[in-house]
């Protein structure tokens, strides 16, 4: 029989109405204390503000770098990113379980750097200790059992802030959807300010009011799920969110009077007309490589390759997805690996020199070498479940009712309005609106 792990561990309920009854496997709740936030009816709500917060662990590992965030009253805020990007460290600094190396933390406008965990009026539900063998279940990374108990003895009922560190991570894909829906519904129903950590982009998009994406301890992007999915600030964020993965294509802009900015992808071209506000930003990058972001659903088969922006290619393989095909199209484009682009160095860590990437031929190939040249001297990319490595084909979604087949020539109309463009540093060429 599955027990509520909070009960199984004999530790505290987190105090958020409804959330206490969630069946969260291998999780526990830790300290909370006197209500410090504002009262809204029965509930104490609070804001959380981090200003230029950094964390360097003993030994020099910088886990969080210059992080500034404001989480509003009652907001369901998700910290998202790959393993090791600093999500848990951020959560634990808010809980008071890790010291802040530099920067400021405010809880409901109260300076909180110096507060003990028990003085913060937060509740924390954290992940399965088994995922991190160096942590104990009770401590979840070093929380003394006494702390949890002392906190519980003095706690009021509702906490001001709920901190959740991948609570459903002990579940496999199928049953996981149940607690996700439950968590979303109950926590939202309670209206408590929530900071929720996950590496799962689907979970983040489904649950969050807003999402902050972290990478190597740095903030890459912050916004609503729609904002960061449709208009990501960096190529890394574009690639981290969404499945099937976004196409990130190397191109070189060339300003052409009277026409627009022609994006040279090698053997194919797309034109951004002068009326498009991005054209002037691209014109300033004439001859410098940029990265085009095209989600598979921003490409639609068309019968006329001369009408509007189109990329053409031969279908290499087709994956049947029921309502659609996922087509791998050999379009003679150069795909950029987002993991290798825009990675900021981590001064706290020694970085061994890496060999320079050999230069492939062709315009797009040279562009790729320029894009990767800087990154190649930095630390090697960590593996990511979502980026899928460096693959040459274009991915497109095709209607499964149409008789497509391998080897067939397909023309794909490009929705330019859904094509974010990034510079060689992985950041957007045009201002990101939030
Ligand atoms: N106590 C510690 N001492 C030294 N380094 C640490 C400590 N805890 C975490 N780190 C390092 O800090 C970085 C950030 O770790 P953190 O656990 O915050 O990342 P995360 O994004 O939560 O990862 P995950 O999703 O795997 O839990 C990692 O490189 C990690 O190895």
Automatic annotation (TrEMBL):
Top-rank taxon: Bacteria
An MF annotation (GO) of this entry: ATP binding
Gene3D superfamilies registered for this protein in UniProt: 2.40.50.100, P-loop containing nucleotide triphosphate hydrolases
SUPFAM superfamilies from the UniProt entry: MOP-like, P-loop containing nucleoside triphosphate hydrolases
Keyword terms, alphabetized: ATP-binding, Nucleotide-binding, Sugar transport, Transport
Domain (ABC transporter): residue spans on this chain: 48-241
One GO CC annotation: ATP-binding cassette (ABC) transporter complex, substrate-binding subunit-containing
InterPro entries per UniProt: AAA+_ATPase, ABC_transporter-like_ATP-bd, ABC_transpr_MalK/UgpC-like, Mo/tungstate-bd_C_term_dom, P-loop_NTPase
Protein name per the record: Multiple sugar transport system ATP-binding protein
Lineage: Bacteria, Bacillati, Actinomycetota, Actinomycetes, Streptosporangiales
